[in-house]
Amino acid sequence: MSNRAEPVRPAALLHIDWTACDGRALCTEILPDLLTRDEWGYPLALGYGSNVPVPARMLPAADDAVALCPRLALSLVRPD
Amino acid sequence: MPALAGRLTTGFVEFRTGRAQTARTVREDRVMTVDVLAPPVGTARMIAAGAPDHARHLATFGPVPRSVTGADLVNALQDSGLTGRGGAAFPSWRKIAAVSALPARDKARRRPVVVVGNAAEGEPLSAKDATLLRMAPHLVLDGLLVVAAAVHADRLFLYAPHSVLPSVASAVAERTDAGRIELRPSADRFVAGEASAVVSTLSGRRAVPRDTTERLTLSGLGGNPTLLHNVETLAQIALIVRFGAGWFRLLGTADEPGTRLVTVSAGLHTNQVATGVPGRVLEIAGGTRLRDILKFTGNDLSAFSAVLVGGYHGAWVPSTAFDLRLDRADLRGFGASPGAGVVLGLEAARCPLPVAAAIVTYLANESAGQCGPCVNGLPALADALRRLARGERTPGPTADLAAEAARLASVVSGRGACHHPDGTAGFVLSTLTVFSADVAAHLTGHCGKDHS
């Protein structure tokens, strides 16, 4: 899925529901180190598609992003 | 493989099996007592009956085992190495194992299990599923019933285009065990066969993919465990439960065991992309070389500069590599895979870029319109390719048009509810790579090929 080295043991995956997302971009402001915006405004973590690995230190911010997304397009998938 | 060529040149439509002499009348209620017939030899397996009616089906293949347990089916399919024939090549046993494990894991609140035979062939270049349903519907019904029995399914669907449902309905009416199968017309669009789109349609919603975080085998139709198999996969299952995994592997390569149906066509003009061109459907041994596939269909190898393998979400293989086999291992270097068995020859005199641009334009129009990167990115990709194909040399805001197309392809990859953007991006990158000489000719204004 990616040529990039996986972060050591991502604490969770941030799942983007593209059918819900309309590029309001709160998530890219809350998680600037994880997500940028593409030329149309949608969140982009190049190489990671719809499931972006979240390192442990970013988990609180990722939780905020999930809670604040006006389109409810984000979810955090934690490993079982 | 001369023997193979001999079988294949009989083709799909006019094939002869030489097995008519084994015909015998079998009554439905006595099928358990009838000897299992000898398995088909040669590559005419799914098409061995030669006629779609139930009597010929039974005379050719014998009765299907009535009660194959989930464990036995999983074992047989695992031994056979059968992979899904809808395009994704997922090992067929794994989905069945996932569903048949459910009741044991969660007996207290067992949910209804749904099994779907999927014949929504949205790919314009593919005709093999419709052909199979017309020529051998009973094998598909057998496979669907075997899988349904193995996972104790509560609902059974066959999802197929309007045009073939009458053939399927006739086949259902010919037997006493298929009445529970619900026939549903598939939507006529490229993404209609995507698994979550099939579930959406069966739920009465639009035939578009949906965001899935759980596998459909856990949560599909109505939130219930749902098992989708391509109809060719079901036909193969119907043969494997009769004749065994060892027989299945007598043909094909280790990487691509058994046979598979392919649709072979050539001469696609830019204005035919949405409909495809009439192709020939063949049953071939897995891992047959590309040059042999072209020869079997009566094509002159020197007429082609490349073949598109896997359809519009597939990849090009240049004529210098026609010795490669139609299997994953051989095709990996070109980013191709057998997919749903689509092979399109590109004539040597035809410039690939207008064709590729027309294909990407079509794919952009076929976006379900739900996901931002697909809605915006695919038209941008199509635009870059059309400009490149027209011979525009003026670079955009970034480097050249080819570099811009490659950049857009990487931006859209992986960013959708289904693989439509990924498949489109893969096709674009393959076009830019395999036809780098044509791209260079366009960027310098020196392409002398046919642009129709």
Short summary of the structure?
The complex is a heterodimer of chains A (80) and B (452). Chain A is an alpha+beta fold.
Description of the structure:
The complex is a heterodimer of chains A (80) and B (452). By secondary structure, chain A is α+β, with helices and mostly antiparallel strands. Helices cover 19% and strands 21% of the residues of chain A. Chain A contains two helices and five strands; from the N terminus they run E-H-E-E-E-H-E. In chain A, the strands form two sheets. Chain A has a three-stranded antiparallel β-sheet, with helices on one face. In chain A, strands 2-3 form a two-stranded antiparallel ribbon. In chain A, strand 2 (36-37) and strand 3 (43-44) form a beta hairpin. The radius of gyration of chain A is 12 Å and the shape is globular. The two termini of chain A are 21 Å apart. The model of chain A has no long low-confidence stretch (mean pLDDT 89). The longest helix of chain B has 19 residues, at 372-390. Chain B has a five-stranded mixed β-sheet with strand order 6-5-9-7-8, with helices on both faces. In chain B, helix 3 (70-80) crosses helix 10 (231-248) and helix 15 runs antiparallel to helix 16 (420-434). Chain B is α/β, with parallel strands linked by helices. Chain B is built from 17 helices and nine strands.
- Amino- and carboxy-terminal Cα gap of chain B: 37 Å
* Radius of gyration of chain A, taken over Cα atoms and rounded to an integer in Å: 12 Å
What distance separates the N and C termini of chain A?
Answer: 21 Å
- The ordered H/E elements of chain B are HHHHHEHHEHEHEHEEHEEHEHHHHH
Note the main sheet of chain A: 3 strands, antiparallel
As laid out across the biggest beta sheet of chain B, the strand order is 6-5-9-7-8
- Low-pLDDT windows of residues of chain B: 1-35
- Please, what is the average pLDDT of chain B? 87
Total DSSP helices of chain B: 17
